[in-house]
Amino acid sequence: MRFFVVCPGGLEVPLAQELASIAQRPDCKALGAWVIDPTPTSPTGGVGLAAPLSAAMALNLHSRIASRVLLQMVDAQYRQEEDLYKLASGLAWEEWFSSKQTLRVDVTAHRSPLKSLNFATLKIKDAIVDRLRDVTGDRPSIDTAFPDVRVQAHLTATHVTIYLDTSGEALFKRGWRDEKGDAPLKENLAAGILAITGWKPSQTLFDPMCGSGTFLVEAAQIALAIPPGAIRSGMYGDDAKPSRLAYRPLVTSAHGFGFQRLKPFNEASEQKRWVALKEAAQAEMIEKRKQFPDSGSLGISGSDINERLVAMFKGNWQRAQLPGLPVTRQVDALASKPPADAKDGVMLLNPPYGERLVIKGGRGQDRTAGDAERDSYEDVEEPEDRFAYNLETGRQSAKRSSRESLKKLQSEEEQDPKFVEFLRQFGQHLKDTFGGWNVFVLTADMALPGQLRIKESKRTPLFNGPLECRLFKFEMHQKRDATADLK
């Protein structure tokens, strides 16, 4: 079978590395041969591979970077909308799902000659519905919000590829996020950034503006070998209950994955493989928990000036099935210090993008520039031209929309001297306090290194939704001991 694993723009290389790692797992090798496409040299929005049908279960369970796992149904040439109808109606959809299930169809395009993407979507939807009605005598209903089955098509200038979505809800929805909290950073982007930093569970990790803790929760789950799909797969059973600090999770085991609603995956042989994959993951988790018995042993910590977000982080940590409570403090980033006994480590943060933030804390105090209550990227509207970009799949270029958003953010920043001064102070604080550390900052502000007054050693282009960002790496040098120089 052919798959296309979708990821946020800029994460194709770490995704390819992750897919290779998943394919080498003994339980995944047992499924059959995997052949991963060459790593893309330019942004493609994902990575393709050939693997057994069962690989869809392993990918949805284990991939931290993927947004969706798409199963290819057909790839063929087309010239007009009627060609799309013929191709889609010729597929045996009845072998994959029934007319009693609800359906959603999405189409993205790049350089397509068709004038209306909506009409192309309609033709593919009609083809599927007509096929099931002709074969079964009944037609499925359309549900754009919570469909049982999702079909995705991608148009190029000459070819159309039609996929079945085996993920259902996007994979960044792990099931531990507080749904009432701001969500500026998707979980799979956080995991991909962790991969880019080269951080290992043996290293100290610190986020001085941790917000609701996305980076830190993802890192802790990596250290403890907790699959990103653990909650959605039902691996915790009744134990995966929201904590008293958390709200109802967005996605639970009741939602599961898209493949669980497709006929071939419900056959006894595939069900047996699914159980085996989860049992192997459970065994690995048990072994890792012996290595890291409590949160203090993980070497993962954070701080934030916002009391409400610190409480939210604690709730997310507990619902993510991590031990105890996270090592965290409510403190301004300008007063943050390296964790005890940590002479060097990795700092990773996603600061606010230039807006002046004033929030009432639990003690009635105003919170300003250092506050991590930042605007959600998901508040940035999708461009009307869907040929330019599709937020669900990431298959299109977001340069136009992201640049407009970036200009807006940068103009706001130019009008906020207090935030500029905060960045200058924070840069000096890094130099004074975090010598020997590697500091990684995700931002949409390309001028950030100059505002921190620190020269970056590396910058990696990334997309967070429609926003074009950079992951800056700063190597903080140890300060020389002046007294030692006098000896």
What this model shows, in words?
This protein is 32% helix and 17% strand. It is α/β, with parallel strands linked by helices and 487 residues long. The chain has a domain at 187-236 and 293-475: 3-Layer(aba) Sandwich (Rossmann fold), CATH 3.40.50. Strands 2-3-1-4-7-6-5 form a seven-stranded mixed sheet. Strands 10-9-8-11-14-16-15 form a seven-stranded mixed sheet. Helix 6 (187-197) packs across helix 7 (214-223). The termini are far apart. Residues 238-249, 354-402 and 409-413 have low confidence and may be disordered.
Summarize the helices and strands and which ones pair or pack.
Blueprint: E1 2-6, H1 12-23, H2 26-29, E2 35-36, E3 46-50, H3 55-62, E4 68-77, H4 81-89, E5 103-109, H5 117-136, E6 149-155, E7 159-165, H6 187-197, E8 205-207, H7 214-223, H8 268-291, E9 300-304, H9 307-319, E10 327-330, E11 346-349, E12 359-360, E13 366-367, H10 399-414, H11 417-433, E14 438-443, H12 448-452, E15 458-464, E16 467-475, H13 482-486
Parallel strand pairs: 5-6, 8-9, 8-11, 9-10, 11-14
Antiparallel strand pairs: 1-3, 1-4, 2-3, 4-7, 6-7, 12-13, 14-16, 15-16
Helix pairs in contact: 4-5, 6-7
Approximately how much beta-strand content do the residues carry?
A: 15-25%
Averaged pLDDT: 85
How does the major sheet shape up? 7 strands, mixed
Structure class: alpha/beta
Q: In whole angstroms, how far apart are the ends?
A: 69 Å
Low-pLDDT windows of residues? 238-249, 354-402, 409-413
Write the CATH architecture name of the domain at 187-236 and 293-475: 3-Layer(aba) Sandwich
CATH topology of the domain at 187-236 and 293-475: Rossmann fold
Overall 3D geometry?
globular
The largest beta-sheet arranges its strands as 2-3-1-4-7-6-5
Alpha carbon gyration radius: 24 Å
- Helix coverage percent: 25-40%
Pfam families: THUMP, UPF0020
InterPro entries: RlmKL-like_Mtase, SAM-dependent_MTases_sf, THUMP_dom
Protein name: RNA methyltransferase
Keywords: Methyltransferase, RNA-binding, Transferase
